[in-house]
Design goal:
Layout: H1 2-13, E1 22-24, E2 32-40, E3 49-58, E4 65-73, E5 76-84, H2 85-89, E6 100-109, E7 118-127, E8 132-141
Antiparallel strand pairs: 1-8, 2-3, 3-6, 4-5, 4-7, 7-8
């Protein structure tokens, strides 16, 4: 399950997945603009490596922030957690992050024992002033 959570987090800040798996729940004032996203395999498959390539534009310097993740299996909440954004993205990008375009590719092995079923979730990413960077709604079927 931890790999599924990591994949969900990657889908947020690194903005990974196709429109079938995620959609924006943010607004036009979000500070992250999603330029392009590629996910392989599409859709994600349990027991396989998930690769996400994302190109985003950050319109402000990011010095700190939070990441709120809620993940449900059917109607059961399996994760409801607030994380430090800079600590979470540290393996991929150190804070502070200057405004600009960023492209990243990240891969993660999904375990083969992820329970089959419908997963939904939401990830809200906030900056140092608690302004929304991005909001992503997830909808996955394993």
């Amino acid at each position: 399950m931890n790999s599924l959570v990591l994949a969900a987090l990657l889908c947020i800040f690194l903005v990974g997945a196709t429109a079938d798996v995620w959609k924006s729940c943010g607004s036009g004032s979000d500070h992250v603009k999603i330029n392009s996203v590629t996910i392989t395999p599409d859709p994600p498959k349990k027991g396989q490596s998930l690769s996400i390539t994302a190109n985003v534009t950050l319109d402000e310097q990011l010095t700190a922030g939070t990441l709120h993740v809620e993940l449900k299996y059917s109607i059961i909440t399996v994760l409801n957690k607030t994380l430090d954004l800079c600590d979470t993205i540290q393996p991929y990008q150190a804070c502070p992050i200057a405004a600009g375009n960023y492209q990243r590719t990240v891969s993660e092995d999904l375990p083969s024992d992820i329970p089959a079923g419908h997963y939904t979730g939401q990830v809200k990413v906030l900056d140092q002033a608690s302004a929304e960077l991005a909001c992503i709604a997830l909808d996955l079927e394993f």
